[in-house]
Amino acid sequence: MPAPAPKPEILAAFEAAKGFMPVDEGLALYAAAVEAGRLGLPLLEVGTYCGRSTILLADAAREAGVTALTVDHHRGSEEQQPGWDYHDPETVDPEIGLMDTLPTFRRTLHRAGLEDHVVALVGRSPQIAAIWNSPVGLVFVDGGHTDEHANADYEGWAPHVAEGGLLVIHDVFPHPEDEFTGQAPYRVYLRALDSGAFTEVSATGSLRVLRRTGARGVV
Ligand SMILES: C[S@@+](CC[C@H](N)C(=O)[O-])C[C@H]1O[C@@H](n2cnc3c(N)ncnc32)[C@H](O)[C@@H]1O
């Protein structure tokens, strides 16, 4: 059976949105989200940025009749700050001189007609995870790339992946020469496999899809 693919208008909205995720990885994320949506639980993303990947989770959530949740403080990751390779000056709020990707994210979702299917959680990932206590069908980790942030995202959110649910990790680069923003996501991917709670389902570019095959809560 072919993998579920987004409708052309959703794919066009994804391609038009600000962000870094290539199409092949987006299609793999979408297929994972459709599959996880069958559990009837929310789909959660860490790292909203301007909503490029959120579009895909939101459309899969709409199809499944569930909600997409997306977590971000909207102040940008280390490599997105002024002076770094991934900085986009358009994301800076001129009034306060700090990055603020929330307005662009909201425009992106509005244009894609997906606002009703998304709840944006604005704040630091570990702070929100500390007060979160319900299962989710999918966790997509695409937040900060330091070991501190990537591990905190894993420890904070992976325990909430329901049995049979999916843990998706972005920017997994096994070879140091391929990495642009550090290998912390790769180390978290290895940690998830080593835990015995997750089994690899697929690899597309730097995107890894793992399934929870151990009990919920274990990481
Ligand atoms: C690589 S971008 C996400 C890209 C997005 N998923 C996409 O495909 O377009 C990473 C995002 O994580 C956010 N972020 C980094 N560390 C965070 C933290 N500790 N808490 C909340 N958000 C964080 C940044 O603000 C940034 O918007």
TrEMBL record:
One of its GO terms (cellular component) is plasma membrane. Keywords: Methyltransferase, Transferase. InterPro entries: SAM-dependent_MTases_sf (IPR029063). SUPFAM superfamilies: S-adenosyl-L-methionine-dependent methyltransferases. GO terms for molecular function: methyltransferase activity. This is Class I SAM-dependent methyltransferase. GO terms for biological process: DIM/DIP cell wall layer assembly; methylation. It comes from Streptomyces bungoensis. The keyword Manganese does not apply. Transmembrane segments: none annotated.
